[in-house]
Please model this.
Amino acid sequence: MKYSDFGLVNTHEMFADALRGRYAIPAFNFYNMETLNAILAAARKTHSPVILAVSESALKYMETDMLLGLITGACISPREQIALHLDHGHSLDACIHAIDNGFSSVMIDASSLPFDENVKLSRAVAKYAHKHNVSVEAELGILSGIEDENTQSENSSYTRPDDAVEFIRKTGVDSLAIAIGTSHGAYKRKSDDESLRFDILKQIAKQLPDFPLVLHGASTIPTKYVDIINQCGGKIRGARGIDIAQLKRAAKTNICKINIDSDLRLAFTAGVRESLKQNPNAFNPRDYLSSAMKNMTDVCIDEITHIMGSKNKI
Ligand code: G3H
Ligand code: 13P
Ligand code: ZN
Model:
């Protein structure tokens, strides 16, 4: 199945526009009908290009045929500029599977491998993907994180600008995820003093002026939803995300794609918990899932409008 049959587009044009216009495209993760619909509702309300991100574990959870059924049912038009992206693909096989099944973009995350092996694997994925006009993202540097199976390390190692230039030249990938202080999950910073390394971003952008860069682990961890979760029986303590002003600043640079998952999970969970607390007798999942979807759409709209700058950019 080719991605254009689903009305999807690859990321080439959206990244070129984002680079020129100094904004970022949101990559929002989904894993079922509710989360897909919540993201698409936000994309359609804001007229923003959006990348629908599916991790390997989310793909395993949904299964490929069910995912494709959902995408078919979403009736996406190429005019909406929606990409379907494999998030953190860890092998050539995983990327080939995605490409052969209608994904318009794939990430090969070989960032935990030595540089030369990362180059070799990323180049192989780019070679296969480009035959099918599919975009490829790779990653260089290591993001830290404690609650995410895609993060292998407790300690981050920032992307080295010279390595980035060599990596792009040797692999032919279309975008590069860099490590400048973001991390996956809800516990990103111990204090508000911790800042993103804009100095490193600037050096990379200077050497690769027209090249799309990507920020993973960029959730802001909205206090509003953490508080609702905690007030409604949850226990999420010490969660702290990326500073909103810093993310906005990053979106105005060569960062063309910003990945958000944890914020959506928190909004969704807050919706379920609050709905069930307010209606203890209710047991129709459609009720609490509707609250969850609404919260998730609200977060997507808010971040598209106030962080990405991608509203009305179609
Ligand atoms: O960075 C990855 C996303 O948050 C997806 O995580 O593998 O738990 O679906 P996941
Ligand atoms: P967050 O955990 O910060 O939402 O990061 C998501 C991500 O990077 C998906 O690839
Ligand atoms: Zn990620």
